[in-house]
Write a structure and sequence with these properties.
Length: 171
């Protein structure tokens, strides 16, 4: 049952089952009939695998008998889920209305121009993940950037560039 997908199989050499899939299967069985089964199962999968890669989402869709598009849609809608390996650092730029009108787009643009970072992607060296938020509910600090979960107020393009560049150059 577990050999249908090509995920890392740390225990495959000795023939024992992959405990991460065992735990995921258990969660699927326990939640199959619940309305929020998909969220529960995605949580468990992320706990087990670190992030939700396509093979895991395909497996979940098949086991819960849901369209892959729906599973993928939920996995990408909620920020607590990640479909890529985690980076050491995350920079979020708020592009809600208040931040956008006070220059939020320029924060994003300088990262793309100077560091070739794009929203929703990891940096080429895998150290920084850049994402866009749609209002973090703190519009008085616009334009805001969130560095590793900490909100920084009234950021300039130079501020954001210095912070993210520093991360990228870390050994
Ligand atoms: S729009 Fe950025 S915090 Fe509200």
């Amino acid at each position: 049952m577990l050999s249908r997908i090509s995920l890392p199989q740390p225990n495959i050499e000795d023939g024992s089952p992959n405990p991460r899939f065992h735990s995921l299967d258990l969660t699927i069985r326990q939640n199959r009939n619940r309305q929020d089964a998909l969220i529960e199962v995605l949580h468990r999968a992320q706990e087990q695998f670190g992030y939700l890669e396509k093979d895991v989402l395909t497996y979940i869709a098949r086991e819960l008998k849901l369209p892959l598009s729906r599973v993928y849609g939920v996995a990408t809608f909620y920020h607590l889920f990640s479909i890529q390996p985690k980076c050491k650092h995350t920079c979020s730029i708020c592009l809600g209305t208040a931040c956008y009108t006070k220059g939020g787009q320029a924060l994003l643009d300088i990262l793309t121009k100077e560091l070739h970072l794009k929203a929703g992607e990891r940096s080429p060296n895998g150290k920084v993940f850049l994402r866009v938020e749609r209002c973090i509910g703190n519009c008085g600090v616009a334009p805001a950037a969130i560095y590793d979960g900490h909100v920084s107020r009234q950021q300039s393009p130079e501020d954001v560039l210095a912070m993210v560049k520093g991360w990228m150059e870390e050994p």
